[in-house]
Design a protein that fits this description.
4-stranded antiparallel sheet; 6-stranded antiparallel sheet; alpha+beta
């Protein structure tokens, strides 16, 4: 009987080690919201974008449940260090922009509270805008920022 218990215990440990050693395919999520209620909870239009390892992918807000020109707030959930996220006023995430902000996760992993995209405009490049989050690019030529997010481009590392 003791021999069977030991085999079962060792099998469980082996399976657990195998699961811990496998690399995750997700590099975290980014939540987006139109407003933050007085309670601190998100409101209005909302969506969540999954970040995949090794990808550099644009997300047009028009193609999400958030829709174009509605989003003002974002929140990082377990985003891997060195991931960069571009917030852009233009749908194509292109070079002719009213405004663009790029933030970089600098701790492993990075989770934030709700942050305002317009408040990024009050920071300079290199500023830490939240624990584990650095503003690496700041450009605002003109135009409204509040509720005018059209594209998010996420670039995640290949390995956690």
């Amino acid at each position: 009987m003791n021999r069977y218990c030991m085999v079962a215990l060792l099998s469980g440990i082996y399976v657990g080690v195998g699961q811990a050693a496998s690399a995750p395919s997700s590099a975290g999520t980014i939540q987006l919201a139109e407003i933050i209620e007085p309670s601190g909870l998100p409101g209005g239009k909302q969506c969540t974008i999954s970040v995949e390892l090794g990808e550099s992918k644009p997300f047009k807000m028009a193609d999400t449940t958030c829709k174009n020109d509605t989003i003002t707030f974002f929140k990082f959930n377990n985003i891997l260090s060195t991931s960069t996220v571009l917030f852009n006023s233009e749908e194509d995430c292109g070079a002719t922009d009213d405004w663009v902000f790029i933030v970089k996760a600098i701790k492993q992993p990075t989770t934030t509270g709700w942050l305002s995209i317009p408040e990024l405009d009050g920071h300079r490049e290199g500023d830490i805008v939240a624990p584990g989050l650095e503003l690496v690019k700041h450009y605002n030529d003109h135009g409204n920022i509040k509720g005018k997010l059209s594209c998010v481009r996420i670039t995640a590392p290949y390995k956690p």
